[in-house]
C-alpha cells in the first residue's frame, strides 16, 4: 500500500518499480559493471545470456548491470552499445578512485595490470601483479580483481581479459604505466562506433 501523497510521489525522480516508493539512497555502479561495459564494447550484439555466460554471472546480474550503466549514461538507452568517450573517461579518471586497488601478499595467480598480455612487452622489469587463482601459473603481488570471475576470463574471453588487465594497470600502475594503459584503452574504444 502506497502511503505517499501524490504531490510527493510526483516530485521524486526515482521510484522502486515494485512498490512505487521513492529511493532512499543514491544508486551507484559496481565493479562488475566495468567488466560488463568492456564486454559490450567488444561485442555490442551480445544478448544478456552471452554476457552472463562469458562473465560467469547470473542473467539477472547482467541485466541489472546494464541498467546501472544506462542510468550512468555509459551505455545508450534501448541499445546495448557503449558511449565510448564517457566510458573511457570513467575508466581512466574514475575507476582508480571508485574501485581503488586492494593489494595483498605474493600469491600464485593470473597476471594482470602491467604483467598482463597487452602491457607486459612494453613494461619490462616491473614487479608482477596477479589475480590470486589456482588456475594461474605466475607468482606475484596479489590484487583483488574487479569481480570474482576475472581469472576465468583468460579462457572464456581472452580479448576481454586483456582489456581488464589494462584497467588494472590504471588502478595500480605508476604514471608511465597509467599513460600507456590509457592510450591502449583509448585505441581499443576508438574502434567502437556509435551509429
Overall pLDDT confidence = 86
- Biggest sheet overview: 3 strands, mixed
What is the total domain count?
2
Total strands: the figure is 3
Helical content, roughly?
40-55%
Beta-strand content: 5-15%
Shape: globular
Low-confidence stretches: 1-13
| DSSP helical segment count | 8
List the secondary-structure elements in sequence, H or E.
Answer: HHHHHEEEHHH
Rg over CA atoms:
19 Å
Q: Structural class from helices and strands? A: mainly alpha
C-alpha end-to-end distance: 44 Å
Question: Keywords, please?
Answer:
single chain; 195 residues; mainly alpha; Arc Repressor Mutant, subunit A; 2 domains; three-stranded mixed sheet; 8 helices; 46% helix; 10% strand; globular; disordered N terminus
Q: How would you sum up this structure in a few lines?
A:
The chain is mostly helical. Helix content is 46%, strand content 10%.
Task: Write up what this structure looks like.
The chain is mainly α and 195 residues long. It folds into two domains: 31-97, Arc Repressor Mutant, subunit A; 100-187, no CATH class. The chain is built from eight helices and three strands; from the N terminus they run H-H-H-H-H-E-E-E-H-H-H. It has helices at 6-11, 31-42, 48-55, 59-71, 84-98, 153-156, 158-172, 175-190, and strands spanning 103-112, 129-132, 138-143. Strands 1, 2 and 3 form a three-stranded mixed sheet that branches.
Amino acid at each position: 500500500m502506497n502511503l505517499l501523497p501524490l504531490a510527493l510521489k510526483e516530485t521524486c525522480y526515482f521510484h522502486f518499480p515494485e512498490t512505487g516508493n521513492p529511493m532512499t539512497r543514491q544508486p551507484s555502479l559496481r565493479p562488475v559493471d566495468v567488466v560488463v561495459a568492456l564486454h559490450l564494447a567488444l561485442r555490442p550484439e551480445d544478448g544478456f545470456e552471452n554476457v552472463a555466460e562469458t562473465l560467469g554471472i547470473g542473467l539477472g546480474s547482467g541485466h541489472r548491470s546494464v541498467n546501472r550503466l544506462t542510468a550512468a549514461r555509459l551505455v545508450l538507452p534501448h541499445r546495448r552499445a557503449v558511449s565510448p568517450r564517457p566510458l573511457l573517461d570513467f575508466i581512466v579518471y574514475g575507476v582508480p578512485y571508485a574501485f581503488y586497488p586492494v593489494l595483498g601478499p605474493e600469491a600464485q595467480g593470473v597476471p594482470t595490470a602491467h604483467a598482463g598480455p597487452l602491457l607486459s612487452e612494453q613494461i619490462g622489469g616491473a614487479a608482477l601483479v596477479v589475480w590470486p587463482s589456482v588456475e594461474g601459473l605466475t607468482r606475484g603481488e596479489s590484487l583483488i580483481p574487479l569481480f570474482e570471475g576475472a581469472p576465468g576470463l583468460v579462457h572464456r574471453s581472452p580479448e576481454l581479459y586483456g582489456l581488464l588487465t589494462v584497467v588494472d594497470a590504471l588502478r595500480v600502475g605508476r604514471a608511465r604505466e597509467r599513460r600507456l594503459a590509457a592510450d591502449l584503452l583509448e585505441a581499443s574504444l576508438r574502434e567502437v562506433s556509435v551509429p
